[in-house]
Recover the amino acids of this structure.
């Protein structure tokens, strides 16, 4: 009985998220490199202004790089878009080709891509901050 109930809940969440195929999406891309290529790539993406221009694309909610603690030559890119159309606009933009050229230049490889669609509306940052431990609500 319990397994059936859990299955029904997950099925309902999947159906709910499937109905709105233009919902916000988050993409995690993990790259690997050699000899510090990942850090050099990020440095050039930032210093050249390519990353800033990507962040300015209409519909881009987030475009951030992270370095895994357990992998000195790894890189994680997390980008979020309001919908698939915004992501498609970016994919057809000159910035996408510029970023791809830099990935080639710094020999980023081992690409693993994961895409996520939220099952609940995003929390407004002001609402989230008001419930942080140690903060007073006014």
């Amino acid at each position: 009985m319990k397994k059936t109930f859990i299955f029904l809940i997950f099925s309902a969440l999947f159906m709910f998220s499937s109905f709105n195929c233009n919902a916000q999406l988050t993409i995690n891309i993990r790259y690997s490199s050699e000899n510090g290529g990942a850090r050099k790539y990020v440095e050039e993406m930032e210093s050249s202004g390519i990353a800033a221009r990507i962040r300015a694309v209409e519909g881009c909610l987030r475009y951030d790089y992270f370095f895994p603690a357990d992998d000195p030559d790894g890189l994680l890119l997390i980008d979020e878009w309001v919908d698939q159309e915004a992501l498609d606009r970016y994919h057809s933009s000159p910035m996408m080709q510029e970023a791809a050229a830099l990935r080639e230049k710094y020999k980023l490889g081992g690409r693993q891509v994961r895409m996520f669609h939220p099952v609940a509306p995003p929390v407004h940052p002001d609402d989230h901050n008001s419930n942080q431990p140690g903060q007073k609500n006014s």
